[in-house]
């Protein structure tokens, strides 16, 4: 690898996914600083509103994915159907709302390695996590504990705390939290497995983020699931940072359940509909307890308005309400892009792109940060987390001024995520150029 624009451009030329970049809108610089170093001037981004407009270098797909150009058509199709057909839109038109959610099952199943029956789109991540914990967290007798990562995304921590409280337990006792060892920044995978074995018969459920939102660490879902099953516990995952980022094999790895949101690597837009996976051995069992609503009732008899709740087979039987057609429309165009590119190819590019980012960051002399994300590609996704003992937040603001979008998470971490569908090697190189120029060591020279 070489730290040069020429090298980066040569990689882009050879990239078989390069045309996907044209399918997204990049946020414009506002106002465009006249001579910002390295700003994105490629009118080939297809941002047709101005051939001279300058665009931000967007490396924040781990937080909010960019808008695919096809999204407008899907949303407009919904608006037109509502305008022209009103209530008729439920059953008529190009994408009748009554069955619209069904078309998301196959593309999502492909992305996460599941069967379509095991997938349903609904609600948002935290709502879905609670709904699935209602089914899967069944503390009884001495088996009542839940194991989570220390430093899991706060929403997961709050869900876990309030669920154990809801069942009458004290989180201080019922929640087992596994964090990095003292002086370390990521969790040793063997520590999770050992803790599962150690708590054995007292463990009801293991809940882990597939890719940790802060460190970017990717966990071994299969090994965690096996360990949980060996002691008789359920294994569930929050895949917010994993879906659309790495290929998953949820069914074959025997994972019990998973939840995710669609606004990060899936580019579904803020508040996009979340989705869940429930392994077939559970989802095809209508007797399994869940919270019911008419959206999850047997489709065949739904309009007979039966008094008793009979769930629809599969994960659909966990739905509560009528499908949210408008927010689903935001997800459709992006899933088409994933289907045509293929998640394996997306991942292959991602490994190279993030590897290049890591290589460049390691070239910065006296760099004021520590790269805390594991160096092995099989232990991370697209994201690299740069830990700044001090000055991280200020640096992120300086990067923003210079037209770079990355995000900052307390304590001290700037997260940088090249998303392979729309980022390229040139973006990564320009980020390196700018961070080298604005980093505190350099400013102090
Ligand atoms: C890992 C993780 N879990 C959960 C959430 C919360 O998702 P939602 O707000 O859609 O419930 C987020 C949001 O960024 C997240 O990153």
Features:
single chain, 445 residues, alpha/beta, Aspartate Aminotransferase, domain 2, 15 strands, 35% helix
Itemize the secondary structure elements and their pairings.
Blueprint: H1 5-14, E1 24-25, E2 57-58, E3 67-68, H2 71-85, H3 97-100, H4 105-112, E4 119-121, H5 125-136, E5 145-149, H6 154-166, H7 171-174, E6 175-178, H8 189-199, E7 203-209, H9 221-230, E8 234-238, E9 257-260, E10 275-278, H10 280-283, H11 325-341, H12 343-361, E11 370-371, E12 384-387, H13 392-401, E13 404-405, E14 407-409, E15 413-416, H14 425-438, H15 440-443
Parallel strand pairs: 2-13, 5-6, 5-7, 7-8, 8-9
Antiparallel strand pairs: 1-3, 4-10, 9-10, 11-12, 12-15, 14-15
Bound molecules: pyridoxal-5'-phosphate.
Describe the structure.
The protein has 445 residues and is an alpha/beta fold. It has 2 domains: 5-55 and 342-443, Alpha-Beta Complex (Aspartate Aminotransferase, domain 1); 72-338, Aspartate Aminotransferase, domain 2, CATH 3.40.640.10. The protein contains 15 helices and 15 strands. It has helices at residues 5-14, 71-85, 97-100, 105-112, 125-136, 154-166, 171-174, 189-199, 221-230, 280-283, 325-341, 343-361, 392-401, 425-438, 440-443; strands at 24-25, 57-58, 67-68, 119-121, 145-149, 175-178, 203-209, 234-238, 257-260, 275-278, 370-371, 384-387, 404-405, 407-409, 413-416. Strands 4-10-9-8-7-5-6 form a 7-stranded mixed beta sheet, sandwiched between helices. Helix 1 runs antiparallel to helix 14 (425-438), helix 2 runs antiparallel to helix 11 (325-341) and helix 5 (125-136) packs parallel to helix 6 (154-166). The longest helix is centred in the C-terminal third of the chain and has 19 residues, at 343-361. The relative contact order is 0.17. Residues 42-52 have low confidence and may be disordered. Bound molecules: pyridoxal-5'-phosphate. Pyridoxal-5'-phosphate is lined by residues 124-126, 153, 155-156, 209, 213, 238, 240-241, 261, 274.
């Amino acid at each position: 690898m070489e730290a040069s624009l020429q090298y980066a451009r040569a990689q882009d030329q050879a990239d078989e996914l390069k045309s996907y970049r044209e399918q997204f809108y990049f946020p414009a610089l506002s106002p465009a600083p006249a001579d910002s170093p390295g700003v994105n001037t490629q009118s080939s981004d297809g941002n047709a509103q101005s051939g001279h407009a300058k665009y931000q270098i967007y490396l924040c797909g781990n937080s909010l994915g960019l808008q695919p150009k096809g999204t407008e058509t899907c949303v407009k199709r919904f608006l037109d159907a509502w305008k022209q057909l009103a209530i008729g839109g439920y059953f008529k038109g190009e994408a009748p709302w009554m069955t619209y959610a069904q078309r998301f099952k196959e593309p999502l199943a492909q992305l996460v390695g599941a069967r379509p029956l095991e997938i349903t789109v609904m609600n948002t991540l935290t709502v879905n996590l609670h709904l699935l914990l209602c089914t899967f967290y069944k503390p009884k007798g001495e088996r009542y504990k839940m194991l989570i990562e220390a430093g899991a995304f706060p929403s997961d921590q709050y869900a876990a705390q309030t669920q154990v409280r809801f069942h009458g337990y004290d989180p201080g006792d019922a929640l087992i939290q596994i964090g990095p060892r003292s002086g370390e920044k990521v969790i040793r995978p063997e520590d999770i497995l050992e803790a599962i074995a150690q708590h054995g018969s007292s463990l009801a459920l293991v809940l882990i983020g597939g890719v940790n939102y802060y460190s970017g660490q990717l966990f071994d879902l299969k090994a965690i699931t096996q360990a949980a099953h060996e002691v008789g516990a359920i294994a569930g995952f929050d895949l917010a940072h994993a879906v659309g980022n790495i290929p998953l094999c949820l069914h074959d790895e025997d994972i019990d359940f998973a939840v995710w949101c669609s606004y990060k690597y899936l580019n579904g837009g803020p508040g996009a509909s979340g989705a869940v996976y429930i392994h077939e051995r559970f989802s095809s069992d209508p007797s399994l307890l869940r919270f019911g609503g008419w959206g999850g009732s047997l489709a065949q008899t739904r309009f007979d308005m039966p008094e008793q709740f009979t769930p629809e087979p599969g994960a659909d039987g966990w739905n509560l309400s009528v499908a949210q057609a408008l927010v689903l429309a935001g997800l459709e165009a992006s899933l088409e892009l994933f289907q045509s590119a293929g998640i394996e190819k997306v991942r292959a590019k991602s490994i190279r792109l993030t590897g290049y980012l890591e290589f460049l960051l390691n070239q910065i002399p006296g760099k004021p940060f520590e790269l805390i994300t594991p160096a092995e590609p099989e232990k991370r996704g697209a994201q690299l987390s740069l830990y700044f003992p001090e000055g991280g937040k200020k640096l992120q603001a300086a990067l923003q001024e210079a037209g770079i979008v990355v995000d900052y998470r307390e304590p001290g971490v700037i997260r940088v995520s090249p998303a392979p569908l729309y980022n390229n090697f040139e973006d990564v190189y320009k980020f390196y150029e700018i961070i080298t120029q604005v980093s505190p060591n350099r400013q102090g020279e």
